[in-house]
Amino acid sequence: MRDDFPDLARRALRDAGYSMKAAAREMHYDPAYLSRVLNGKQRPSENLAHALDSLVGAGGALAGTLLGEDDAERVARSAENPSRLDAGTVDALAGVLAAYRRLDDTAPPRSVIPATMTQMREVTRMLKEARGPQRDRLSDVASEWVQFAGWLFAQTREYKDGVRLLNDAVELADETGNGTLAAQALNFKGYIARQQGRPQGIARWFGAAANTPGAHPAQRIGDYLQSAAGLAELGDADAALRTVEQAEKLMDKAAALPPPATAYWLTPSFNRLNMGLATLALGRYSEAADHLRTGLAGLPEELRDAPWSWEHKDALRRAVEAA
């Protein structure tokens, strides 16, 4: 499996405004060594990976995309012979994916897309040839890689590619009956509909996500609330209010559970943002402003400037102006 750390690190340095020489000087590393690493000619040391991560403010996510030497060898063996897939390989691939998702919280989506597509294609290729007891786990990891790629394209407004990938992610999730992953992919289709200003699509896709068998209660809350916003925009306030009530009935159940690992951001505080979108669409402007303000304040520091948060900040501005 190809190591895309050099590509991610180069783009992260560029986005942070560092030339290679300036980065080497700032980190006290030999420029020639850094050049070899950034051009994929030499594997970085663990110390260099963490120094680069710290320099660009990635919070450990950039360093986390680099497999350890043992895991890299294990994954390479499985990539050459997927029929002999083992649990360690699946764990390693899932760990890299988790790091990519965290990197998306701080890096511009466009900078993460090329490496993500490379990894996604390799994992889905392995899945086609995989056999044995670990295949279902690999299928779930592949579904999440495809879903993540679709989400990145959704953020860059490349909606056609985003929808295609999200549809593929749903099919992969359905192969193993993973309702959490299927619901998240449908949720992202709802997000795309919202960016396109299509309330019917908002109501449809978030509603489908909320009613997906196996979806986590925290997912269902957010999906019901966002579906309610779509219904309100369509002028069906009664249906919107009934949908908000469905979300409210799940809140105690969701609060007693950790969020799903594949949707780690779904805390009660995060769902205040979704309640804010619903109440804004219902014309309850003061209530919406309170929910949105609280939800934004409750985001972890690394999420507060994430590109997806901009629409919530804009929604807060509109709620305050209308109140």
Automatic annotation (TrEMBL):
Protein name: XRE family transcriptional regulator
Molecular function, one GO term: DNA binding
InterPro entries in UniProt: Cro/C1-type_HTH, Lambda_DNA-bd_dom_sf, TPR-like_helical_dom_sf
Species per Swiss-Prot/TrEMBL record: Streptomyces ambofaciens (strain ATCC 23877 / 3486 / DSM 40053 / JCM 4204 / NBRC 12836 / NRRL B-2516)
Coiled-coil positions: none
Transmembrane residue ranges: none
